[in-house]
Amino acid sequence: xxxxxxxxxxxxxxxxxxxxxxxxxxxxxxxxxxxxxxxxxxxxxxxxxxxxxxxxxxxxxxxxxxxxxxxxxxxxxxxxxxxxxxxxxxxxxxxxxxxxxxxxxxxxxxxxxxxxxxxxxxxxxxxxxxxxxxxxxxxxxxxxxxxxxxxxxxxxxxxxxxxxxxxxxxxxxxxxxxxxxxxxxxxxxxxxxxxxxxxxxxxxxxxxxxxxxxxxxxxxxxxxxxxxxxxxxxxxxxxxxxxxxxxxxxxxxxxxxxxxxxxxxxxxxxxxxxxxxxxxxxxxxxxxxxxxxxxxxxxxxxxxxxxxxxxxxxxxxxxxxxxxxxxxxxxxxxxxxxxxxxxxxxxxxxxxxxxxxxxxxxxxxxxxxxxxxxxxxxxxxxxxxxxxxxxxxxxxxxxxxxxxxxxxxxxxxxxxxxxxxxxxxxxxxxxxxxxxxxxxxxxxxxxxxxxxxxxxxxxxxxxxxxxxxxxxxxxxxxxxxxxxxxxxxxxxxxxxxxxxxxxxxxxxxxxxxxxxxxxxxxxxxxxxxxxxxxxxxxxxxxxxxxxxxxxxxxxxxxxx
Length: 560
Description:
Layout: E1 2-3, H1 5-12, H2 24-28, E2 49-50, E3 63-70, E4 82-84, E5 87-92, E6 95-100, E7 106-111, E8 132-134, E9 137-142, E10 146-151, E11 157-162, E12 177-179, E13 182-186, E14 197-201, E15 208-213, E16 234-235, E17 243-245, E18 250-254, E19 258-259, E20 275-279, E21 286-291, E22 307-313, E23 316-324, E24 329-334, E25 340-345, E26 352-355, E27 362-364, H3 366-373, E28 378-380, E29 394-396, E30 401-407, E31 410-415, E32 435-440, E33 448-453, E34 460-466, E35 475-477, E36 481-485, E37 490-495, E38 501-506, E39 516-520, E40 523-530, E41 552-558
Parallel strand pairs: 2-35
Antiparallel strand pairs: 1-7, 3-41, 4-5, 5-6, 6-7, 8-9, 9-10, 10-11, 12-13, 13-14, 14-15, 16-19, 17-18, 18-20, 20-21, 22-23, 23-24, 24-25, 26-27, 28-31, 29-30, 30-33, 31-32, 33-34, 35-36, 36-37, 37-38, 39-40, 40-41
């Protein structure tokens, strides 16, 4: 572990340095303290909305780099920073770092050492998406299935526990969620035949308090939606981070695709895959669920960000959870009951004609009906990566719009004959090797758009095209700006009302990170990681030919 002179000097002077005694109350009020970023999503609601206004359409032209920090890695950098008492925390796949938030000076760095062969169970990029702060500790997951607690002041490891095993196909890339005093984590691995789950841990000791499987076994609820009463059911990964309503004491978490991808090998709805789950954080009890893609043939992994908001729906105020789902529909549900309030297409969708509002089920198109019944070659939209992917959207309570980086890509699709893989065991590959796919890129059109979407209609107030799809999260501010990053490395600010690009800065590599904004001593800052990686770069995209690898962290402020 490396420490710089700043910490030593503080100790010599008898000064303990910044305190990090984050309480449940601090986390609950995170949206009201713009000088801090205490949670993934910038608040429990995951709106990724900043109340700061100093940087706005009139001033953004003066935005310049304040500092940058090398993450010393050629892997993808998807992490969201946290900020507390002038210290910034950032994770990479192989390290956790604390920095002086104003200067970028390193305070401490704690490396992660992995057993040989760990990366073999990672389907979609060697990455980490961030951590959690609570009561003086920094919590994160490790790629090989461990959960770790560090002292936030020194970086010293306090405890580490194993949540899953790589031999069973388990990997961990998501940020933990602290809800009602419980450290809650999810797992990746549907492409390796895992039995997905969400787990809760004691923040003091690391003791596991509960584990909620997303895949049933015989006799359990949902088992009758799988062949053979779910004896060999698999999938349902939980690899991103949920949101939390402390007033209802409900955690909302998305679940991934069933395994294998080929639907002919698992006829039925396949609960609780491709679902939104509402759980009790103390016990993991499922209070309600809603399934977006029953019997999902297309890997429409439903782990995308679940954003909480108070909106007017049907002429009355409603507390909702909303999601721009990977399957191309924008869902709005009552977050107390799970009642479906809206489900509309926000991108081109051909796998389903619509969602039946009475049943909540998709109405399959004729082409989808074919491949659910027998081997057939079809064209379907959106493609396997979805209408959007894991990179989180933002929501502005001022405009009432969600800001979503969306794909404009379809695919040719054909399932293989059933039974090709035999009796799959945990750790066996069961993803793209069970179907045939080929992407469709519309000629003369952008491959992606940033869209300002009305949650209740799915319609875009505006959309701004990009030659390659953006694989970055979005940040919206009360100053009227939307920040996001491009795979070609540009960090951009757009007018939240018109979609016009007002400012951009070329970072050294492609951006797949999650921008945040925060304040210190009356100065507004914006921070984002740069470092290309992830699954999209496997696509034949000529625009990315000259984008170098290399991770770094960038912070910007206004030039005075």
